Amino acid sequence: MAASVLPLASAAYYSLAGPGPGAFVEPSHASARPSPRPTPAASVHRRTWVIDIALAAATAALIIGLLLLRGGVWQHQASGDLHAHLLPRYIYAGRAVMQEHRLPLWDPYDYFGVPFLGQIQASVLYPPVPLLFGLLRPWTALQTLYGFHIFVLALGMLRYFRRHDVGPLPALVGVLATVSATFRGYFLAGVDHPNYLAGLTYVPWALLFTERVIEGRAVRRAIGWLAATMGAVWLTGYPDYALDLVVLLALTVLASAGRRFLTAGLLVGIGVALGTALAAGALVPFADHLAATNRGMEGEAL
Asked: What is the mean pLDDT of residues 74-95?
């Protein structure tokens, strides 16, 4: 009996106490190994992200700073839609989502009450709008909303141009041209309508992910990011930009995919379809609301 217990006790002791000095230790696959050092390519990639984020933040700060010198984006410049139409809806969406923790389906303040989720320009499901207008004062929220979109636009332009081995200067000039054209365009509508700039913000990102799909590198990830980008464009609240973007992506596939245009077109189409599905919570009520409207151009109903 003692002879059988002794080896078991000895094994238990050594398993708890560990091997003594000079003892032979059998190599184990579970032993800790030093983490591999990042490759030079990974370090360069990380450094370019840091540089581009810093440049994008500086660009956004410069543009918003110039706007703030004139009092910021607040007083309407043309149609008055900013205060009469968009800001009240942003504020109502922010209060309902962030403070009352509910999804605002109905607006009791317009006329005798109208559907609210179906008003796509209210951007209820576009996260920056309820987040900013639910947590900040309206003036601060609006400046931050413009600053956020300028930053994301600048970063997207920098990443897209870098992909084509173009330096940062043309990308930053492109950002300034986009913001300037949006603010000083037709009837200064970009100032009255924050969703104009928001819709343009994601165009370079959509092109970037589309080209990755065409090249066939990390296709699933690229399709996922393309879907997220497309969904964001729909949710910004101006569907015209999303429809125009679909045409632009189709032309990109035709111009870049070569003989793979059928496969690439199918994969890009999947990304676009998934992005549209992500925005279904806003698009389905909008379609129902649109069917009841009689607003149109030159007397023609939509």
From this structure: 83
Sign of CA dihedral 49, 56, 126, 181: negative
Ordered alpha helix ranges (H), the chain: 2-17, 40-69, 81, 87-94, 128-135, 138-163, 168-183, 189-192, 194-201, 203-215, 219-235, 239-256, 261-278, 280-290
Q: What is the pLDDT of residue 168?
A: 83
Convert the pLDDT of each residue in 49-83 to its tens digit: 999 999 999 999 998 998 888 888 887 666 678 88
Cβ neighbours around 113 below 10 Å, total: 10
Dihedral sign for Cα atoms in the order 179, 183, 189, 192: positive
Picking from 277, 269, 266, the residue whose alpha carbon sits closest to that of residue 234 is 277
Residues 6+ apart with CB under 8 A from 57: 151
Question: Which pair of tokens denotes residue 245?
Answer: 């973007």
pTM of the model as a whole? 0.81
